Amino acid sequence: MANSINVLAAGSLRLVWEQLTQAFTEATGTKVKTEFGPAGLLRQRIEQGEKTDLFASANTAHPLAIQQQGRALEVNTFCGNSLCLVARDTPELDGLNWLSVLLDSRFRLATSTPQSDPSGDYTLQMFEEIERRHPGSGEGLRNKALRLVGGPNSAAVPAGKLASEWLICSGQTDLFIGYTSYARLLRENDKLRVFNIPADYNVRANYALATCTEKAKPLAEFILSDQGQHLLQNAGFCGRDSVMRE
Question: What is the pLDDT of residue 239?
Answer without folding.
Answer: 78
